[in-house]
Amino acid sequence: MAIQNPEPAIDHGLTWTYRLLGEAGLLLEARPANDAANRAVQMLALALDRLGLPGVLSSVPAINTLLISFDPLQVPLDQLQDQTQRLVAQLDLARAAPRVLTIPVRYGGADGPDLDEVAAQLGLAPRDVVAEHCAHVYRVLMIGFAPGFPYLGGLPERLHLPRRTTPRAAVPAGSVAIAAGMTGIYPARLPGGWHLIGRSDLRLFDPGTIPPSILEPGDGVRFVALPDGVSP
Amino acid sequence: MSAALRVLSAGVLTTVEDQGRHASRRYGVPLGGAMDLFALEAANRLVGNAPGAAALEITGGGATFEVLSLTLLALAGAEFGAQLDEQALPSWGAFLARPGAQLHLRGRQERWGARAYLALAGGIDVPEVLGGRGTCLAGAFGGLTGRPLRTGDTLHNAANGAWGTGDALRWAGRRWPEEQRPAYAETPALRLLPGPHIELFAADALQTLLHTPLRVSATSNRIGYRLEGLRLHSAAPVDLPSLGVLPGVIQVPPDGTPILLMADAQTTGGYPIIGVVIGADLPLAAQLLPGDSLRFTQTSLEEAWAARRTLRAWLDAGAEDDDTLALLAWAGVGGELCED
Q: How sure is the predictor about B335, in pLDDT bands with cuts at 50, 70 and 90?
């Protein structure tokens, strides 16, 4: 549902749109949907946390949107929108210096049953797919789909593939996968439609810790090939 | 803390639920919590608990419990023909149960009803995980070790709240006024607000959605309901970046069958959203089972907020005493409480 939007709010080269998602969800969208937009919605989520506005229940940053759930009986929409606009104006995107986590992966074989097929589709040798996958620092664009599932952006175009035509009913926990121009890691045994190229032993999600996810939106991730799998 | 109930039969699906986990949604953890948040809170208030104390959500009925210690209990939500031994229990009321008694919930008695809530005075004693005590089935944590209840499980009640034998007698027999409950119905008209992607659909899509009787598909569950009866088409192929979603969101995947997201929905989705059911009407949706019918009607933001205020006022007003039921409650426990 459209609501009163601020004067074309252009900050950091981004245009912000405010929409309602029902009567208790405020959806902010930053355009164009680029890296700056992704960083902006992540930083805005943290800024909202720090503000601690009563009645704000949660904020979920995604690719270029932030969904704020609120209790309209505790915080009126116009007040929430005012406060959010203020935070948007104060965002300092330059300050973001991501930490980079290194994740060891066994590529190919039973751990990455799609590696050979992926290589064939891309016209590469399996070891070249591994080399390329390990050659970049990815960025956690968002966590969604399942508890702790990171959508990692920055996959080189050489590795772009659509999702599998037939999803698997169950993908083993720790599977490292590519699809849709992204790479990701299945934190648990889940249904999945991405191509599985390897597997990590890292426990990404632990409900007994706060935060429950090792990765935070905005983190950098680098993969390294373990010697007992396919190596570059 | 004491052992309060043992599960003799868990029925189709019985889980420990509360009001959900908000803060960890950012990490992909579903909100979770009771499907019918009104009935959960009413059941808790009937036994003097905090509104969001952990209670049981019993889907479809067919559940039997053995009472292990003198306990103040309350039922709210679906009418499942509950009985304490031979005695019929009205839904939306609090009652005392003595050790050895069996509590049985049969199944749907009226033309509506999917989920009954059973609250124990003090709340169900399960550990808090990520700020909630409800069952996260997707993550296999929370509730009773992250899974639905099964035969042989024992539930303990926490020692907090108004629980204490003397106080419990004061609460037994209370009931929730019928005129202060959501408008549960066989074919509810769920009020929606147009969604953020309405312009991506064909021009008549929303009107079609509002004028078509819909049916909850067989594959529906706590995550969401697939709604059969029409196919909605987007005006052009859509490739949306994933965005945050909430229970109540009606999203439309490429096959055109709308999906109404419910309590255990994923935190993010990539399908266009045609509308969002208002929070005050989610309890009505929660009381639907596969095969049930529903329809949608459009509302305004002001009406949505007013409806929330109404439900909040009803919940805050709380239960009323009912002398008849109080007597029944007394009769049921006389042996334990009267020394003679």
A: very low
